[in-house]
Design goal:
The complex is a heterodimer of chains A (about 675) and B (about 1000). Chain A is an alpha/beta fold and about 675 residues long. Chain A contains 17 helices and 32 strands. In chain A, strand 22 and strand 23 form a beta hairpin. The chains are: A alpha/beta (about 675), B alpha/beta (about 1000).
């Protein structure tokens, strides 16, 4: 039991002192048993505020301290480090959260706020009185990273970590690197072909001695924790020996099967054995077992015979590999919100999404860069671009703004006008959002030089009338209904998380929202961290963003990884569950409630065992334990009930044992 | 050297020849044109050549260089012998480059310099330090934190930045690998990537930071109030300050901007800024003590000084100069400080001072204070010289002179009065008899008009007239008095004549009012008392009748070209003679020293008939004999004479001690700050009360009365504190840690670093650039409004309007002020304003629930995570009024502001009357960015922000290797983007440093 406790209140400017009478709290807590020092100060986290605490620890010989201020999420580490700097075990420092729990919600009732603050402080005193001095748990650290996703963000992250001196596994489920950027016609505002950006990065990744690339591979399972993840990777076979394949393409010339090309988003055909696209890195052929005649049991070995390198190998099977890594970067990118989800727009071959139009504009696309509409191959004379399709629509679709559509729409419209100078381009928009470097200038250029007609309004309906598509919308600037007869309609579909990302998120214990976007740890200051230590986010997996912002975030994630790997040892909080082996009956309740897989029953000895490094100290096991054998270090039953006692009007330090659970 | 030249050709960029012959014809060059080079394995393209160097021609060198360096290694080519170029014309140069022996790669110093301590700099520093490398975090202001720490709360979560950034700031301060160099600037950069030598100026905080505890006692006592830097002028701060309570480092600085003009202008080195500030703070005794440090005669000078300080005052252009002289007099009259300075200890040595005027008295004071025996000779029966003989008592009452001379006698100065040296005591004896003599005999010989009739009875020389009156023998005055001259003596004579009973007093001056040498307030006083002025007339002769003057004949003049002194010369207009009748004529056109005796004693004279002295030491041509005051300069002001007295005293002191007379005395001219008067309200000065003209004419009572204390404080508070710190030294005595050191100077330090991160952030466009918005105290920039809304800000989160402190019930927020306006201001979008507009509106509505908040916008750009949701909530739940349109005009209408705009959605004109307008001013690079870019040798964009190596894929590398970019110095961005970019930057720095780590040398 600690008997020389110090209590330190913070005003937090007016955040706390504006409703809590800090002077009164100090006076009253000074009389509480075991409290030998209490004081308040305007900003406890400031240098002088901390110095006062140091001084009190030194001069009053305090053996435990209670810091009454903001949430422990903000300053627990600050103040525990502070305690340690004066030789006080950091776990003998407790935070009494009198801001988020008290002054903020009770802003307009100062009297009650003051009383509640006092109770919170008393409860913290009662807790810290029985705290044990603890040492952090040391955890081994594997200095190797896993990057999931081989798009521009994943490549950047992987290259940075590798350049930082550490090994990286880069996993990509497609048969090539580069992600969606490779398929773009060009990127604004510089108007350089999309692939030209990312291909050098992809090639560099291939050449990098510390990077191992796993294509056609997905993450099957993840176990472990920061510094010590075990990841199962499942690889699909290409049915071609890539060591031998030179990417000559003879196989795909002889293949008799034609199916829609995924890369061209169905606007062209590929064969059953194919090189995904002309600029794929690596240039390797693969067989799609879904369409290959051999896999339907039909006798066809045209490719097998044609391949000069004898690389075709129908006997390849799936691979399963386990890799050990210390950190994971999730860079799984985005998918477009499906245009089929918009009921008001009739399905039509000439109503296409923006990525499809990118392929039409791309020099290496199905039309060689000539603008032709899918239905009849004619050059469209009137093209309507519709922005915010599915975005900014909290009632029906995505509530958020997809960020990139304003810019790519302007770019696409401008490219269209360049290729079809006599054509007319209409853009329906709500707000033009051009916030990045050079973006506003680009839009102004597009509207003036490109003579693109911007119409402010939503499009209500799109349907076919003969040769043409009818687009009906409202111009909110003139308040009139507009009808445009169009040859082609391009929908700027909103962006959402990539297909399958929510399942992946579950496997790596990261929060995903209902749109498949992964949650960062703090929207301002922690944009790449997640709530799971050792797992970081990059690129559109977190939220739609421009290429440059993806790059920036990817490098930021790698910085976190490099920092993590630069530590000499990893430390884990010792505030974990412990099981009293004498009392435990091995019933297994704890095992069932543990979300982290940190408690297991030793079937032989019939007792529960805690894997401390996995334990996050949530206390679920302690709550579930019928015998009181599982307890949380420094949040024991006794401590918790003492605190509860304070909040229910008790006087603390109760010797009444009546609350103890019957065992 | 065998060199491979690889040329890429693809459908996007087909190669069409044109390789320069010098490259094509080089036998050692192997040119390969490769289809889709970037898709080919390098060994396939060049494996068989055995090249030792490589040049690649491809589309985007910035993106391909790293790739080809790595590829080259695989081919056995030294990565330093690789160049990637874009055009064929660059090939010859590239070829030469790769064939030159690569410079030995400097060892990389694994230490980074981060320039700028805002949110981006803080994060970059922390990331790099967490990666295990040393970081210098350079910040030019006294604390890190940047603009973010000024914000009230941050969108979309409404976290308070004090809560989320302070821990990071403290972490920086406590991190063992981070060294914060606050209040410092980059001076020079040498060397190259991996090994830069940087010179850093550590600006003097005038406080020893190793002793400062940040307690703030100094701030408590500082009398200087300045517009707060941190609160952007919404409130005030002191000259010694800590920018904000959570500052890191927790240290104070003193804001000094050179020397205030008033102080620089004072020949005596009195510190008006200091005592005015102390008066403003109501600390009169301290103020008087500060005056007395340099001026033992505050009562005298508080009345008759020609106050060059007021001439220099920056307030001149904003309402009128501060009434410094009157404030000094207020102190002298109202505050009683016993003042007999301590004599430092008796010394062996005697000094004779001839003349007890301002120069002699000051010298006597100084020399006696230093312990020398001082004997003062004067021809008059009482000390004061011209103060007594020349200045009438209604300007300087005799008892004031007596009061202020008395301490001299108490100190032990010996006065020999009524002794005319040269008559009663031979000059030779005096000069021989003392080791040091100061001649301060003034200029008492009147200059003559040189016209006919000057010798007539009833014609007085001005000075003689005044002396007669002042010494108690006034001549009879009646009828009409004519005074000739425009100096102070002429005015004094005119006003004196008025008091002696003249019916009319007419003053004639040969130039115009502007050229008149008399003090304007004296001229004004004379006019009030009824003296009539006749300008541009000169006397031709004095008319007499029976040996008695009866009148004067004048000739009219016009002004010609300026003479050598810059005054326009009067030119006679022929045939304009006219006559004026007079009962008394007083000619007051100047005085000169009487020096008939001087030459014989070996004292040289100047051409102007004054004593010739060394300008620094004031020593005459005769060693040991010094001279000062009017006898050297001709008639000048008392303050100049006193200054000369002090200067001569210093020389004599040195002489008697046997020290060098000259050493260290030529002080460089003080730096006088330029003061920005924009936004300063032009309140006119408080005037001291005066007797009414009727009362004045009756007798010689003092005309001007002292300020009341309240008025004095009010007037003192008009001071603009041009130099910041007023050097009253109050802080010095308040500081228990004895940390204050006003003599501390800037110092230069050099460091070696391997990489530099630029994170210098942004500033807002100044409000004044918008022609359509009137300057008004209630038109705020957004950071000012942030400060008003900040719960821990200067108002405790209570919103008030600056003009009158009322709670604004209607606020208009105008988006895109200067942004998106390529023709007038900035072509780009400032990116963050839409969101903070919504945020400020929401915070305002929380603070003033009954208030209304209007936003004029062009497009709402809320495109980040949770941003659109925030915007929609602000409109629906917080009921902000969004108006789509541009604002045409903002102007004051009585108590309120009027905003005129057009709603582009309805097409109608909108007029909003409101209490407060907030302008979302565009973001521009922070001041000094261009100079910094120059120092660093990196490029800027056409918008003035730093240029990145490649906009999309290399956004945080500058155009120079080893120099990286983070945050808003590259383009406007919001906090998470800055944080991400800072961390990204750190990754690049760490990758760069990783080369320096053992075992990683193969990394290109």
């Amino acid at each position: 039991m600690r008997g020389r406790i110090g209590v330190f209140l913070c005003h937090c400017g007016l955040n706390i002192a504006g409703s809590v009478d800090v002077e009164r709290v100090v006076q009253e807590i000074s009389r509480w048993p075991g409290v030998v020092h209490a004081e308040h100060y305007i900003y406890r986290c400031s240098d002088p505020g901390q110095e006062l605490v140091r001084k009190a620890i030194r001069e009053k010989g305090l053996d435990a301290i209670v810091m009454a201020n903001c949430s422990p999420a903000l300053h627990q580490r600050t103040f525990r480090d502070l305690a340690a700097s004066e030789g006080l075990n950091p776990y003998l420092c407790e935070i009494a959260n009198i801001r988020e729990w008290c002054s903020w919600p009770h802003w307009h009732e100062p009297e009650r706020a003051t009383e509640k603050a006092l109770e919170i402080v008393k409860a913290a005193v009662e807790k810290v009185r029985r705290n044990m001095a603890l040492e952090a748990i040391k955890v081994p650290l594997t200095r190797r990273a896993l990057v999931i996703g081989g798009g521009v963000a994943g490549l950047e992250a992987a290259l940075d970590i590798a350049e930082g001196g550490f090994e990286v596994h880069l996993v990509e489920r497609a048969p090539y690197l580069g992600g969606k950027v490779v398929g773009l016609s060009s990127s604004h505002p510089a108007l350089l072909p999309g692939g030209c950006d990312v291909i050098p990065m992809a090639l560099e990744a291939v050449l990098h001695p510390r990077l191992r690339i796993h294509l056609l591979t997905e993450v099957e399972a993840v176990e472990g924790y920061v510094g010590n993840f075990k990841v199962k990777l499942r690889g699909r076979p290409p049915f071609v020996d890539w060591e031998r394949c030179t990417g000559c393409g003879i196989c795909q010339e002889v293949c008799p099967v034609e199916v829609p090309s995924e890369f061209d988003r169905g606007l062209s055909k590929r064969r059953a054995i194919y090189i995904p696209h002309r600029r794929a890195v690596p240039q390797r052929a693969l067989i799609d077992p879904e369409s290959c005649l051999r896999f339907e049991g039909k006798p066809c070995d045209l490719c097998l015979e044609a391949c000069p390198e004898e690389a075709v190998d129908f006997s390849q099977g799936e691979t399963l590999e386990e890799v050990e890594v210390g950190a994971i970067v999730v860079a799984t990118g985005y998918d477009l919100y499906p245009k089929e989800a918009i009921g008001e727009y009739d399905p039509d071959p000439d109503v296409i999404d923006a990525l499809e139009f990118e392929r039409i504009l791309a020099p290496d696309g199905p039309t060689g860069g000539e603008v032709r509409r899918p239905s009849d191959g004619r050059v469209p004379k009137e093209v309507v671009f519709v922005q915010c399709v599915g975005s900014r629509d909290p009632d029906h679709h995505l509530p958020y703004c997809s960020k990139v559509c304003c810019m790519y729409t302007a770019k696409e419209a401008l490219l269209y006008k360049e290729r079809v100078p006599e054509g007319r381009a209409y853009v329906f928009y709500m707000d033009v959002r051009a916030t990045g470097k050079g973006h506003e200038e680009f839009i102004q250029e597009a509207t003036s030089r490109g003579r693109i007609l911007y119409l402010r309004g939503r499009v209500a309906r799109i349907f076919r009338e003969g040769e043409k598509l009818k687009v009906i919308g409202i111009d909110t600037l003139s308040d009139r209904t507009l009808e445009v007869e169009a040859d082609l309609v391009v929908l700027a579909m909103g962006l959402k998380g990539a297909e399958g990302v929510r399942e992946l998120a579950k496997r790596i214990n990261v929060l995903a929202d209902s749109y498949g976007l992964l949650s960062e740890s703090h929207p301002k200051l922690g944009p790449v961290e997640t709530l799971t230590a050792g797992v970081y986010l990059a690129g559109c997996a977190q939220f739609p963003k421009e290429i440059q912002d993806s790059i920036s975030q990817a490098s930021a994630a790698s910085s976190k990884v490099i920092s993590l790997f630069s530590q000499e040892e990893l430390l884990h909080s010792p505030e974990v569950a412990r099981v009293d082996q004498e009392v435990c009956s091995g019933c297994g309740y704890c095992e069932r409630v543990c979300a982290y897989g940190a408690v297991e029953v030793d079937r032989r000895r019939k007792v529960a065992v805690v894997k401390e490094v996995l334990c996050e100290g949530c206390g679920a096991c302690a709550a579930a334990c019928p015998s009181g054998a599982a307890q949380l270090v420094n949040s024991t039953y006794r401590q918790v009930m003492e605190m509860v006692g304070i909040f229910s009007g008790g006087n603390g330090s109760s010797e009444d044992e009546g609350w103890r659970k019957a065992s | 050297m065998k060199t491979g030249v690889l040329i890429c050709s693809c459908d996007l960029r087909p190669f069409d020849g044109g390789v320069p012959p010098e490259v094509a014809g080089d036998p050692e060059v192997e040119i390969r044109v490769v289809e889709d080079l970037c898709l080919r394995p390098p060994e396939e393209a060049l494996g068989d050549v055995g090249a030792e160097a490589l040049v690649v021609l491809s589309c985007q060198p910035a993106l391909h260089e790293r790739l080809w360096r790595r590829a080259a290694r695989a081919l056995g080519i030294d990565p330093h012998r690789v160049a990637v170029v874009k055009g064929v014309k660059e090939l010859p140069d590239a070829l030469r480059r790769v064939r030159r022996a690569p410079e030995a790669e400097a060892e990389v110093i694994p230490r980074a310099l981060v320039i700028g301590g805002g949110v981006a700099g803080i994060h970059a520093a922390l990331e790099i330090a967490e990666g295990g490398y040393e970081v210098l975090l350079l910040e030019r202001s006294p604390s890190i934190g940047g603009h973010m720490i000024q914000l009230s709360e941050v969108f979309p979560t409404l976290d308070c930045p004090q809560c989320i950034l302070t821990p990071k700031m403290v972490q920086c301060a406590q991190h063992p690998l981070i060294d914060i160099l606050a209040y410092s600037e980059l001076e020079a950069v040498e060397g190259t990537a991996g090994r830069f030598r940087v010179t850093i100026k550590r600006k003097s905080p005038y406080i020893d930071w190793s002793k400062c505890t940040g307690c703030g006692e100094c701030t408590e006592v500082c009398p200087v109030e300045l517009p707060s830097l941190f609160d952007r002028g919404v409130t005030s701060q002191r000259a010694v300050y800590k920018p904000f309570p959570q500052a890191v480092p927790n240290k104070h600085v003193i804001l000094k901007e050179g020397m205030s003009p008033c102080r620089a202008a004072c020949p005596l080195g009195v510190n008006p800024h200091g005592y005015v500030a102390l008066i403003g703070a109501g600390r009169f005794e301290e103020a008087l003590k500060l005056v007395l440090e340099r001026l033992p005669f505050p009562g005298i000078m508080g009345r008759i000084c020609t106050h060059p300080c007021q001439e220099g005052c920056s307030r001149k252009e904003a309402g009128g100069a501060l009434q410094i002289r009157a404030l000094k007099r207020f102190l002298a009259d109202q505050v009683k400080v016993p003042f007999v300075p301590e004599v430092e200890g008796e010394r062996e040595g005697e000094v004779a001072i001839v003349g007890a005027g301002p120069c002699g008295l000051m010298a006597a004071h100084e020399l006696r204070r230093r312990g020398w025996k001082v004997r003062v000779f004067d021809a008059l029966e009482a000390p004061g010289g011209m103060l007594r003989a020349g200045i009438p008592p209604y300007r300087l009452p005799r008892e004031v002179i007596e009061q202020e001379v008395a301490p001299l006698e108490e100190m032990g100065v010996e006065f020999r009065l009524g002794v005319r040296v040269g008559q009663d005591l031979p000059w030779e004896d005096l000069l021989e008899g003392y080791p040091a003599v100061l001649i301060a005999t003034g200029a008492h010989r009147p200059l003559r008009l040189g016209v006919e009739g000057e010798e007539l009875d009833g014609v007085w020389q001005g000075l003689e007239f005044l002396r007669a009156v002042n010494l108690g023998f006034p001549p009879e005055v009646r009828g009409r008095v004519v005074v000739i001259g425009g100096g102070n003596t002429a005015i004094d004579a005119a006003r004196t004549a008025m008091r002696l009973g003249a019916e009319e007093v007419h003053l004639f001056y040969r130039r115009s009012r502007v050229e008149m040498p008399a003090s304007p307030e004296e001229v004004e006083g004379a006019e009030e008392e009824g003296v009539r002025f006749h300008l541009l007339v000169a006397p031709v002769r004095i008319l007499g009748d029976g040996g008695k003057a009866k009148g004067v004949e004048f000739l009219r003049m016009r002004l010609g070209e300026p003479d050598e002194e810059g005054r326009r010369k009067p030119i006679p207009l022929k045939g304009t003679e006219f006559q004026v009748e007079a009962d008394l004529v007083i000619a007051a056109i100047g005085q000169a020293p009487e020096l008939g005796w001087a030459r014989d004693l070996g004292l040289e004279l100047t051409e102007r008939g004054t004593l010739k002295v060394d300008p620094v030491t004031l020593e005459t041509s005769r060693p040991g004999v010094f001279a000062g005051g009017d006898v050297v300069t001709g008639p000048r002001s008392a303050v100049e004479a006193m200054a000369a007295g002090r200067r001569a005293a210093e020389s004599i002191d040195r002489l008697l001690r046997g020290e060098d007379l000259r050493e260290g005395r030529e002080v460089p001219e003080a730096k006088v700050p330029e003061v920005d008067l924009r936004g300063v309200e032009g309140r006119p000065p408080e005037r001291p009360p005066t007797l009414s003209p009727e009362e004045r004419r009756a007798d010689f009572r003092e005309v001007e009365l002292p300020f009341d204390p309240e008025v004095a404080v009010k007037e003192a508070k008009r001071c603009l504190n041009c130099a910041g710190c007023c050097e009253c030294y109050s802080c010095e005595s308040a500081c228990e840690a004895q940390a204050i050191d006003h003599a501390l100077v800037d110092r230069l330090e050099t460091y070696e670093v391997g990489a530099i991160v630029v994170a210098t952030g942004y500033e807002l466009l100044p409000k004044g650039v918008l022609g359509e918005v009137e300057e008004d105290p209630d038109v705020l920039d957004p950071l000012q409004f942030e400060r008003l809304l900040c719960p821990s800000g200067p108002t405790g989160g209570k919103v008030f309007r600056p003009s009158d402190g009322r709670v604004p019930t209607e606020v208009v927020f105008i988006h895109c002020c200067g942004s998106r306006d390529p023709e007038h201001h900035l072509p780009y979008c400032s990116r963050v304003c839409c969101m903070y507009g919504c945020k400020l509106g929401v915070l305002y509505r929380h603070a003033v629930p009954e208030g209304r908040f209007y936003l004029f916008y062009m497009d709402m750009r809320t495109d980040g995570k949770m941003y659109e949701e925030f915007y929609q909530r602000a409109a629906s739940e917080d009921r902000l009024v969004f108006l789509r349109g541009r604002v045409a005009k903002v102007f004051r209408e009585g108590e309120r502001l009027a905003v005129w705009g057009v709603d582009t959605l309805s097409g109608r004109r909108i007029e909003v009357a409101c209490d407060l307008v907030v302008l979302a001013l565009g973001m521009v690079p922070s001041p000094g960015t261009a100079e910094l870019a120059e120092l660093l040798g990196v490029e800027l964009d056409e918008t003035g922000f730093f240029r990145e190596a490649e906009r999309r894929l290399r956004p945080f590398e500058s155009t120079r290797e080893g120099v990286f970019l983070a945050g808003c110095c590259q383009a406007p961005k919001d906090i998470p983007e800055c944080v991400a970019q800072a961390a990204g930057c750190a990754a690049k720095v760490m990758a760069f440093f990783a080369k320096a780590r053992e075992g990683l040398r193969e990394v290109a």
